[in-house]
């Protein structure tokens, strides 16, 4: 029974952002400002707890940080505090379930990102000892456990509490008995500490506190940190002191502003040429027809001997992986499998001798991908992470990493990181093909030349989006739409559908066009627009055949086709043009079009584009 309940709470998980600060300035505005940068991690409810020396003051609300701002105490002069923004997959977000959670006396307050898997057993034990619980959350047991173990030393109480806990956590704890410290700890959920002068900060990630400091300490799993105004002391859960290095964070604060765009998503779509150029920079050698990943040099022999590849990822990153499979198999002639992280890790994973696991995660924090990577490692795979976030958990766990250089992505819907992931997979394909001596200089030089043209072509596409906007409004009027593509453009059809549903809430599905007649064709009516990806290429005429099939069922068909394609207008109702490009790279241009279609359809519907309902940017729970 208990196991069953724990199974349920696994589903009722919370994925959140935490912050904390201690210094001489008022804590409340710092906490609120920091939380705003973590809203991508969840925005169902939010709260802060501040410590004014005498007692803890908790303010929390169902809603977003802007709602929290309306109820915070403007006269609170506390200089110590912790804060939280929450995301729930199930269950009703409420102010009672919002963090911080406190113990029976309101003397200890806790914020938490993660899941306490054995919370039910702990709750029953604590209840039998007289503890009174107020919320339905797993987190509240932490506050009561700390109360149970508190004996004049908060750090020790937290340590003992955490030794009882199974699951994942990044937590911050304050107590009115010790008003000059914050205790924080992590296991499988991200946590960093920021160092200031006479003040210190903690957060789930760097952008949250980047405004206050660029000196960062990464906290590792099962480490606990004692933070005062002037000191930060890290030790293991077992009490062994740990020396930490301070990292200087780069990236400007401006990156996290909308810069005149109405939404982060639109800004990030427009940033794709820059992101791609930066991802290529110093890595392409066109004349030599080679790609140099300096970061892979020490593993070169091992990588060269790879006989199979598994690509592991979730969501949009999974779609990039699907495209990667086409490219890598084509260039390397070795089997490439693509698996959802959440499936891979529970399969009976085959031995990974001479196999490479490429784990793709823009955030580098996706719990399923991290767990799948661990599983791959334990089966002997060499692990390579593709991520956009320097210092993220995946960068510290993979054998080697390849960074996309897209800059921070705030919009929940991944855009610029997606095209950069595709690019880096293409680059890796050419790199390995040359290493294995499978392509000649001329072939890879031609690929590199086309690759280098992509950012400029995306720029010209972005210069003229009126047809895209027009078609998007039409889709915005419907309840559902379908995306079809073949070969390299099939993963893009899936991605187009994902973008559409997540930000516009329009039901959308992507299909390999050849599969229509095996079932999905039954869905096609005059009310279901079909977006067909038909760039020039070896499946062009097959696509025309599939378009005829849906036209015969009265669908309104929008084609995404090459600028020079004069034929397509005879087959479809509307054409969105992409610049002529090598077939290999048309998916990247088509992806940008589909991002814009989803964006403008969502805008037409008045949807909340950067923070779609029920989603969060970084999925740090399983
Ligand atoms: C959709 C989207 C998600 C993520 C997925 C994996 O727009 O962004 O589907 O791709 O949650 O996230 P990462 O890449 O951070 O592991």
The CATH architecture term of the largest domain is: 4-Layer Sandwich
* Poorly predicted spans: 1-14
| Overall body shape | globular
Biggest sheet: strands, sense, closure? 8 strands, antiparallel
Q: Could you estimate the helical fraction of the residues in percent?
A: 25-40%
Query: Class by helix and strand content?
Result: alpha/beta
If you average the pLDDT, what whole number results?
Answer: 92
Rg result = 25 Å
Strand content: 15-25%
SS summary, helix count: 19
Classified in CATH, the superfamily of the largest domain is Aminohydrolase, N-terminal nucleophile (Ntn) domain
List ligands, each type once. fructose -6-phosphate
Q: Can you walk through the features of this model?
A:
The chain is α/β, with parallel strands linked by helices. It has 3 domains: 2-251, Glutamine Phosphoribosylpyrophosphate, subunit 1, domain 1 (4-Layer Sandwich), CATH 3.60.20.10; 264-461, Rossmann fold, CATH 3.40.50; 466-605, Glucose-6-phosphate isomerase like protein, domain 1 (Rossmann fold, 3-Layer(aba) Sandwich). The chain contains 19 helices and 27 strands. The strands form 5 sheets. An 8-stranded antiparallel beta sheet has the order 3-2-4-1-10-9-11-15, covered by helices on one side. A 7-stranded antiparallel beta sheet has the order 5-6-7-8-12-13-14. The site of fructose -6-phosphate has 14 residues, from α10 and α17.
